[in-house]
Design brief:
four-stranded antiparallel β-sheet; alpha+beta; 2 domains; 35% strand; three-stranded antiparallel β-sheet; 33% helix; 7 strands; Translation Initiation Factor IF3
Length: 230
């Protein structure tokens, strides 16, 4: 009997504690922080694509074009760590109507341009030496971690300010944070104004041109915070 009474007492205490926890005055809000930055570098993904009926010949031509592209990149004094082969492929293409097989060879390079003033010169060189497909141009900041930290701090300040606005009419104060959740999406920021694709015609290569508007990138942080009310 005593054992039963002890169990009941423990259950009642646990229930009371749970009720007390539920009755704690608190407020939950979301906070957003945003930092706008002018990008200072770009990552280019570009491909040399070659087609033909002989697999060996197609691969040979593709390799020759890629070699010329790499030589051009080296002449621009890019750091060896700033460019690499991303993907190499040789695929058969079967034409069911003609009942013939052709081959498609591709090599994709990833190049980091840390000085955007070299962007146009590099693009012209890539196309003139054999690149025939620009897959993507992504503008970035070399100080991304720094700006992400700033965005997180701004998000927390925004959350606290919202909480203070809500409770200001109640005669209460915002106390310590009970829970903090980071809801920021894990993605790379994109430029507000994206790159305009360069012309493939090389007739005006001698004339300096600007073919990209880098704009700015937005780095955002989103948090959910629960504050204790005093």
């Amino acid at each position: 009997m005593k054992k039963v009474l002890v169990i009941l007492a423990v259950v009642m205490m646990t229930t009371l504690q749970a009720q007390e926890i539920k009755q704690v005055a608190q407020i939950s809000v979301n906070g957003v922080g945003e930092v706008k930055v002018v990008p200072d570098q770009a990552t280019i993904s570009a491909t040399v694509e070659t087609k033909g009926v002989n697999a060996k010949e197609v691969k040979k031509i593709n390799d020759t074009q890629v070699e010329a592209v790499l030589k051009m990149i080296k002449k621009m004094n890019l750091a060896p760590t700033d460019y690499k082969t991303q993907r190499v492929a040789l695929n058969p293409q079967y034409d069911y109507e003609k009942k013939k097989t052709s081959y498609n060879a591709t090599q994709t390079l990833e190049i980091i341009v840390r000085d955007l003033s070299k962007y146009d010169e590099l693009m012209d060189g890539l196309v003139s030496q054999g690149i025939n497909k620009i897959n993507n141009v992504e503008f970035q900041s070399s100080s991304l971690s720094k700006y992400e930290s700033e965005a997180r701090k701004l998000a927390m300040k925004d959350a606290k300010m919202k909480a203070e606005d809500y409770v200001s009419v109640l005669g209460q104060k915002v106390g310590r944070a009970l829970t903090i959740s980071d809801n920021s999406q894990n993605y790379r920021p994109q430029p507000v104004v994206y790159a305009r694709m360069m012309k493939t015609e090389m007739s005006d290569m001698a004339t300096p041109r600007e073919t990209v508007a880098a704009g700015e990138i937005k780095i955002t942080a989103n948090v959910s915070v629960s504050f204790l009310l005093e």
